[in-house]
Amino acid sequence: MRVRFPQTIRALVAVVSATASFVAGGCYRYAPMDVESPSLGTSVRVQLTDAGALTMAPLIGARVEFLDGRITSAADTALTLSVTGTTDRFGNEVPWRGEHVMIPRSALAGFQRRTLDRKRSYLFGGVAVGLVAAVGVGFGINGSGGGDRGGVTGSPK
User: Fold this and answer.
1) Could you tell me which residues come within 8 angstroms of residue 36 by beta carbon, excluding any fewer than 6 positions away?
2) Percent of the chain beyond pLDDT 70?
3) Under CATH, to which class is 29-116 assigned?
4) Which residue ranges make up each domain of the chain?
5) Crossing angle of helices 118-138/5-26, nearest 10°?
6) pLDDT tens digits, 36-93
7) Which CA distances in Å does 37 have to 13, 51, 69, 144?
8) More confident residue, 110 or 29
9) What is the per-residue burial (b if ≥16 Cβ within 10 Å, else e) of 65-90?
10) Pairing of strands 93-104, 64-74
């Protein structure tokens, strides 16, 4: 008889990992900020105007609508962002490595901040628990520990 324990553990780890990454990515949303200029060091999502996207295209890429990053400097006419990523008008995201980009204030449509979406978090958390439970039942993982002792109890005589 073949032992399937390592295969069961591998399958369970794969399902838990996939579920965790799904839950982690699905629990956040971006909410508008009601400030003209967030403080230095603040992580923000900057939305560009249409004209701003055209002006900035040679530096950040064509059709970019959002820049994610941390504000490193701010002046009356521009702000500098340490960019961690961009999102174009089609929703395609491109990661960046913290390059500094100066954005003219005239190119800014607004600021957004990443916030926890509690409703989606609870929903995805419930789905994750359900998936882990279903996999556990499917593979016969019941947490009983060791194998069958054949009904022998007590100490040997």
Assistant:
1) none
2) 59
3) mainly beta
4) 1-27+117-142, 29-116
5) 170
6) 778 899 999 999 999 999 999 999 999 999 999 999 999 999 999 999 999 999 999 9
7) 44, 20, 14, 58
8) 110
9) bbbbbbbeebeeebbbbbbbebbbee
10) unpaired
